[in-house]
Design a protein that fits this description.
Among the domains are: 115 residues, Uridine Diphospho-n-acetylenolpyruvylglucosamine Reductase, domain 3 (2-Layer Sandwich), CATH 3.30.465; 119 residues, Enolase-like, domain 1 (2-Layer Sandwich). 32% of the residues lie in helices and 19% in strands. The chain contains 13 helices and twelve strands. α10 runs antiparallel to α11 and α11 runs antiparallel to α12. The longest helix is centred in the C-terminal third of the chain and has 20 residues. It is globular. The mean pLDDT is 96.
Length: 340
């Protein structure tokens, strides 16, 4: 049995209290939402905070409301998101991303905010303490070398969150609160391409809310590649949100790839190729090729990196065909092993 290290647990009932306690020693304190990521990491001694501030009792973090757009509390569970009929109808891409996270049991515990802040993953990092010690640790924790690429000056652990690429494609933002200030940050600016310092959220800040603008006129979809259809992190994914004109032409489009770098990766060239164009097979193929060029997976997770990169073409192609209106149920079942 792998036991948790000793730590001090604090359970605030308001965001203000949580922020105040976090401000006392931000470098030694970590936030606990659902615990599906932090608790296993603590057992493996990847993260060893002296104090854990649990956010589960803060009801204000679990609200989901809509008006001019959609405001989703960071503490809302993925199950609550999946069961929200309005979200499923208005933002299908976000619903698809949420429903493909882990298993029903973990979605009952895991939160949207927690999934956005998911720790980066790597074959050499997500191991027991004894395993990591046997290879002299890695740069991300206790060592000095990135074992994925030993000459790399930075950690190459991969971003494996499902909801972040989709929310970035939707143009969403997050609300961050500290004891002294508040600020709103675009999801696209929440991440850095660094496996160790992958979040721009400051250590004393709490992610409290996710804001998505009105999606009228937009279509969205999320496609995920994983080994097991029932339960697995993505090894490549594609999130697409597009606004189509009356004739079916693309007025605006955003394409974001997941699990191919230490942050979700947008594809500006692919987006520019389709803007003002029809979603025909020729343009879709060109778009998929441009997205393929952006993907730079490393040998730090399941499947061979060359094949994962090639599969980006298929993911983007399928996503664009679904945006176009094609019936993609068979293709999704074959690729994701799950009929949504």
């Amino acid at each position: 049995m792998i036991r948790l290290p000793r730590f001090r647990l604090r359970m605030p009932r308001t965001v203000a209290d949580a922020a105040a306690w976090l401000a006392e020693a931000p470098a030694e304190t970590m936030l606990l939402a659902g615990g599906t990521d932090l608790v296993p990491n603590m057992k493996r001694r990847q993260q060893v905070p002296a104090t854990v501030v649990a956010l589960r009792q803060i009801e204000a973090l679990r609200t989901i409301r809509n008006g001019a757009g959609y405001c989703i509390g960071a503490g809302a569970t993925l199950t609550e998101l999946v069961r929200h009929a309005t979200i499923r109808q208005a933002i299908p891409g976000l619903w698809q991303a949420a429903v493909q996270v882990a298993t029903p049991h973990l979605r009952n515990m895991g939160t949207l905010g927690g999934n956005l802040c998911l720790d980066t993953r790597c074959t050499y990092y997500d191991q027991s303490y004894e395993w990591r010690k046997a290879i002299d640790f890695c740069m991300k924790k206790d060592g000095t070398i990135c074992w994925v690429a030993t000459s790399s000056p930075r950690c190459l652990a991969v971003s494996s969150t499902d909801t972040a690429p989709m929310l970035q494609a939707l143009g969403a933002s997050v609300h961050l609160v500290s004891a002294s200030s508040e600020r709103e940050v675009a999801v696209a600016d929440l991440y850095a391409n660094d496996g160790m310092h992958y979040l721009t959220r400051q250590p004393d800040e709490i992610l409290t809310e996710i804001r998505v603008s009105d999606q009228t006129g937009w279509r969205s979809t999320y496609w995920k590649l994983r080994r097991r259809g029932s339960f697995d992190f993505p090894v490549a994914s594609a999130a697409v949100a597009a606004k189509l004109g009356a004739g079916g032409g693309v007025e605006e489009i955003r394409i974001v790839l997941g699990a191919v770098a230490s942050r979700p990766m947008a594809s500006p060239k692919a987006e520019s190729l389709l803007t003002g164009q029809a979603l025909d097979d020729e343009h879709i193929a060109a778009e998929a090729e441009a997205a393929y060029a952006v993907a730079k997976p490393m040998d730090n997770t399941d499947y061979e990196l060359v094949w994962r990169k090639k599969m980006v073409r298929a993911l983007v192609t399928n996503a664009l065909r679904e945006i176009r209106g094609d019936d993609m149920r068979e293709a999704r079942t074959r690729l994701a092993r799950q009929l949504l």
